[in-house]
Queue: 3 jobs
Job 1
Amino acid sequence: MARNDKMVDRVAALMSQPKMIRNIGIVAHIDHGKTTLSDNLLAGAGMLSKELAGNACWTDSDEEEQERGITIDSANVSMVHEYEDQEYLINLIDTPGHVDFGGDVTRAMRAVDGAVVVIDAVEGTMPQTETVLRQALKEHVKPVLFINKVDRLINELQVDGQEMQIRLGKLIDHVNKLIKGMNEERYKAGWRVDAAEGTVAFGSALYNWAISVPMMQKTGVTFQQIYDYNKADDPEKIRELADKCPLHEVLNDMVIRFLPSPLQAQEGRVNAIWHGDKETKIAKSMASADPQGDLAFMVTDITMDPHAGEVATGRLFSGSLKRGMEVYVSGTSRTNRIQQVGVFMGPKRLEVENIPAGNIAAVTGLRDAIVGSTVTTLEGMEPFESITHASEPVVTVAVEAKHMKDLPKLVEVLRQVAKEDPTLKITLDEETGEHLMAGMGELHLEVIAHRIERDKGVEITTTPPIVVYRETIRGHAGPVEGKSPNRHNRFYVEVEPLEEGVRDLIKAGEISMRMPEVERREKLMAAGLDKDEAKGIVDIFESNVYIDVTKGIQHLNETMELILEGFQEVMKAGPLSKEPCMGVKVKLVDAKLHEDAVHRGPAQVIPASRQGIQAAMLMADDTLLEPYQKVFIQVPQNNMGGATKEIQGRRGIIIDMTSEGDMTIIESRAPVSELFGFAGDIRSATEGRAMWSTEFSGFDTLPTNLTAEIVSGIRERKGLKKELPQASDYLSM
């Protein structure tokens, strides 16, 4: 413990020198060695014994992570590294690689300035590698590359020294090609990885060694020697190599030399993630990481501590965090009082007196904060851009408490779980009284259900997983009249599919109602909306928009909030099957409102607005979209037939097939509804020889021959009439 106390003192001393800080995330595809690498870095900093490094999985502190051998939650560690006789503070976040926990990666990217992208030398860049790289570039996070498991290349694939270098070169080229394709502007500004420059390191996290060009110059160890050491297959030789070229030194040196400090990074990052006025005092304070400025703290993670309650972890862009501060949380009106401030050392949280701008901090006492909240001392501050995820919740289970006495506790626990993991959507099905939990995939929901029982002590039963569909329209309809129950208010709406370009902008978070109106209008017009529509947008809900194109209607402004409530109700649960809507454009073209405010209250306006939209959608060829996943399979050529048959039997299509040695790599795409139980079936079809991974691949229209059956099934499950609804059901009211 004395060693850790000493470490805390060193960390606290460096916190106030932003020039000496590096905030980094470790990102990669599942099983490419991120957690083993994190262990090594901790051992190098003296926080873990070298013998344990690589096997301790110190950042995987949860027993579920240890059991499954995968990272589920991001873990934060602060450590000190010496480079050229100076001490630097490295705040590291180890992120998950499994696609079901991709939300954690997105949130971690908001907290850091640089990312170490880890790639398996044998498997190369995998789908999740691409996803995390895209996420990093979008958040203005600079990448460096670590190619792991080089020993596998030498011993398993038996490549010679020259072939090894060619293969590693190809991997680097491919990563650069990805960076260029995702963001050419950054690529041209020098955000590419280059072995000669020193932004690429090679090594083996399991055996604690690594090499980079600067390290070769420093130690005189050559690539040929690396090859010979590994070829000898002698543990003594490998240990000797790890002593000469310790992984933590190579990697931390690379991080300190090539990844930006908060001072260098914040100006660019704040422009990318904050859309307030750049001339204000707070904007300048964030750009310069000013510890004396107003507080601007972005919450990227919330965890439960059995003793201290909720712990909010996040990035501090401006000001300083101290105990007892009164702060505002975006989206709420009351203030919260900060109780403790500290830093994480893996599973342990250590308290400090004061944390200045540029650091990653852990805070208790923010009871109103959720992931994505902006915490500030400046009343009315423009919040940070909300965090958008690469994939959406597509699988749902219904959760019930095993014992009735636990029901109140279950409600509280589900609220807590949804707060900790924003990629989880919890809803109450009012017809059946069930709580529905929607997540990224089967594993995601399984882990959450297990944690509810283990950590929160509530025994639950869950139904088998079902797919979440989306409702959309294919045609145009309207004007359709929606009448209020008292017949005094009428709304005339038209509906049509929202332009693809506009949908993409909303999804990428580039358009929101919080933007300055002129900027939003110009972007929308560039994406294909005409001028009147771009000017008339009054609400964006998920990927649906409400546009007011009426002229000079009295009392409309004061009624608009209620009209939009009706719109949002339909978008949350469409008329066809009560599934969420996607890509719907609703236009209000005319309205007749009663003079007297008493006659246009919520009970009149909301149903009128809602029914007009419901009827119009059913007239506009309402249909369902189903979620798809890309499925990547690596399989020996002899077993290829079994794998392709398995995909094609699940309404899947093969997009591409390539072979490498005796392995075939199949890239395919299949509906999520057909992929339940895929793990077991692909094992038996390929004698257990297939390695596979999935990635969310968006939504596609449900085949017409399946629509009626699936809609009826959903309606029956939700306790609705089984027959498909007609527009007249909503108009006759």
Job 2
Amino acid sequence: MKAIQLMFDTLKRDYLSPYEHTDVSTPNFKRLQQKTVQFDNFFAGSLPCMPARRDLHTGRYNFLHRGWGPLEPFDDSMPEILKSNGIYTHMVTDHKHYWRDGGSTYHPRYSSYELIRGQEGDRWKARVNKDTDVEGIEHLPDAFKTRKAESMSQDFVNREYMEAESEHPMARTVQGGLEFLEENKDADQWFLQIECFDPHEPFFVPEKYLAMYGLSQDDFNGWLQYSNDDFTNEKAEVMKGYYKALVTMCDEYLGKILDVMDEQNMWQDTMLIVNTDHGLLLGEHDWWGKNIMPVYNEIAHLPFFIWNPQLQVHDETREQLAQNIDVPATILEFFDLEVPEMMKGKPLRSVIESNDVIHESALFGNFGNNINVVDGDYIYMRTPYPGREDYLYEYTLMPMRMNSRFKPEEMKGAELDHSFSFTKGAGTLKIQTSDFMAKSHQRFGNKLFHHAEDPGQKHPITDPEKEFEMIVKMKQLMEENEAPSPLYAYYGLDHIYSVEDVRQEQEELNREKEAVSEHIHFADYMVKEGYLTLIASIQDARKKEKIQRDLQEISEQHKVTENHLRNWLQQEMDEKDRAFLTYQLNMALRID
């Protein structure tokens, strides 16, 4: 038997014609729909990129125990299990996170792998003066430039070596997969993972696809700012148009895989899975990007297609709940291998074959941010409880972040913890942390949506009985997945045991929300007047703490004169330090 997993990063289901009526040209996804079983209630698990890939290797949620990081010594890795049982595994990808600190143990699990260079500021082509020599950097907003200038300047250098479509990372990635298929067309017992970083931003798109949407490469540099910016309609349509063009390019290269499967009659013995890790927001809910806002359906509700040659079921849909943790179990079962006891995901075979229900409900989320539960009809988003920041810990034996190691000062209070059965007798480091992707989710509050009737999540529901029902499901799943005990306190779940507890919590949180809303005019004033372009970059910790403390005191006074604010800023911050808030303060005080 053989299996191909074709994965795109950040693929929105509502931009694909099999799922939605859309103006995006995706004829090969429509062709794929006819060849496969399409899942209509498929969800992410852990977010974003590498946390999702740990789910896809291990069949377990990453986000309950730690943030972005490598595979752990005790993890069961699906590709490695295949390899250990005589099934050749190969990955070809342009996903640059595989060769950063936080992804460094994933690709060696395969029998062989090919890493395609050049995506998203990958440190590929060398240029000493790239920050000054690359056109366009000087026009970036200061706050965005502070966070992204190095990646952007490197990306613009890399693009100079990818002028032809054939040199584009997606083209080279799929070509690498096609070469594997040609080389091994007479072989058996293999698994091929073709993983494209597109259509993840930056939206770097050959002119051919942009022209289909009336755009050119001069219209936008492709770098999306994660924000709640109110872009002009024209700019918003340009940014969405670039994403559409990139999705159409994904469709074109999907077609090349389908062509080979047709030509070589691979439908008889080769499983095909086409999936993604997550989506993103392109103006929906007044947000752009991911990570910094609740995990709305545009991010969490995913496209998923599967062909199982053993079942021969195609051109059908399934409504049963499934998610990314089910993929490794599905592939292992296909190759007649035992699914490890610690995998919580379930094989999809029974869903395809007999419409079985394998999950009554499921969790998804980012480490440290909102925790979410979905069942057949509802989605409940729960925010970290105010004042419980000290209850957040990472549990890991691989202390690395996305692109760095843990700092020595973070490790000083680390303890060895033996709480979990899935670590196979090994202890993990228990490290208190405040390092996660968005620290201001409390402003959104808890949200309940009727997913079936309101898939756009435009109408939050106030229903204490239903909220308590979803909390019970959430806590049950947390227990089944061995969520750390402090996490219940972190989310305020340690005091919810009845519907009355939910009502009391809602009243308390509403009082706090009203108190915070009194300060909104202060944030709006500061941002509107442009005084705080401010601080993600102050190096002196004591000075940073003083500025934040003073800022809080000023906000509590409510009345701020222009001269007061101007004088305070001039006294407290020199020119080098002005990279603080336009974004941070507005986000921290914004009530959605």
Job 3
Amino acid sequence: MEIPKTAAEPMLWSGWGDPARAADLPEPIRGLLADLLGVRPPETTAVRLDEVRLPAPALPGQVLDELRGVVGPGHVRCDDEARIRRTRGRSTPDLLRLRAGDGSDAPDAVVLPGSHAEVLELLRICAAHRVAVVPFGGGTSVVGGLTPVREGFAGVVALDLARLNRLVAVDTESMVAELEPGLRAPQAEELLAARGLTLGHFPQSFEYATLGGFAAARSSGQASAGYGRFDDMVVGLTAATPRGTLELGRAPKSAAGPDLRQVVLGSEGAFGVITSLRLRVRPVPAARIYEGWRFPTFAEGAAALRRLAQDGPVPTVLRLSDETETMVGLAKPGEIGGAAAEGGCLVIAGYEGEAAEAAERRDRAAEALTGLGGTCLGPGPGDAWEHGRYSAPYLRDSLLAAGATVETLETAVFWSGLPRLYDAVRLALHGALGSPLVMCHISHVYATGASLYFTVVTAQSGDPLAQWAAAKRAANEAIVAAGGTISHHHGVGRDHREAYAAEIGELGVEVLRGIKERLDPAGVLNPGVLIP
């Protein structure tokens, strides 16, 4: 077994990512937000960590003693900082509550197991004492996936999987690696790169999310057109449940009944705790080519993406920003080739692989994009996107501090329904918020359809939590009515349960509840999350 040499750094407790990268907005940008959206500085500033209000720990002493007996006293933490850092995820409502000092959803204790056997025993103890268990990876959920129902339970434990951070084995003949779920994505890539391998999974949460979180939420990375979604990479897994162990996946494909891996993938910790993942890996690409293209309209750009997704060649990265996102993202046209002056919509296309193969694929795709009305902008926009691909959440923190409400939501639909879904969500957000700035991009493409990822910016009202709740409800209703899925890669959590129930129907809900009852009879695993 190998562990990473690079330590996983703690995330900013009240925001996103590296605390050193938190920055105030420049004054000209503040002025622009005030003029365009009416954004004003908030009346109160964010509290300090030691000012967060926490409920008194509720776990009985006997339970704490039993938990310590499994993992050791040093791996059960009840201090305020440990509890605060495992409180909720990183959605805008999560951060607004934390910044206001509301730590009411904090776990009573943080437990760090070091093996599958320890996880099994911890689940047995918690089920026996009716203690809710929230599996915790990187804390990057943006759909309420880390906020359990507390009522009816003796307490809440955050099961932090950070100690399960090893590369267990690599089968280079089959190109499969076994890794533990607590590995953050950068550490997993470090371990694999030492062997010339990569997962090729680079979502915006890459710097802090864990492999277990990717699997539990069906994550999709920015290079999904080439490498596939994370659930495509999972060839096998081990999960601990209150009823015992699930060991799933013994061949690349199988006709031996329904694929039970799919029960665990996307289950968000409600059915079990993933303790090991067997993942398809690829060679580290010898070449990476990124470039930008401009299309006159979003509709024409979407048609071009559909053409490549259906007929090829398919780039490794393929993204299309609408007119508004292009305008805002190209605020410094000198840095990315001058596309802002011409308007239109920006496409980022990237090609990874062996040098000759990547170049040949790029040339064939460029011929197709040109024939479909695209204008090549060269490598500038592609390089700028690659270097800033993980920066957006940091900007959100700065905007929140300046008095703006900023949030994202995403969906997916078949190509034929994409224009209707795009219009429906935008209209719903405008109807709920007045005159917000609504941006959108297509970030994941398939032969049959694509995802839509929206970013919304508006001035904070006197009650920003209620403000966003109304907007989110309107957007969810619009997605369901327009035939889209409630989530393409963020997951269900608590925020999407109602819409998820509408998507799968009454019988589908009964099936989920049946699985939950069989694997988790006491209902202690992430209660209130996923299951309608």
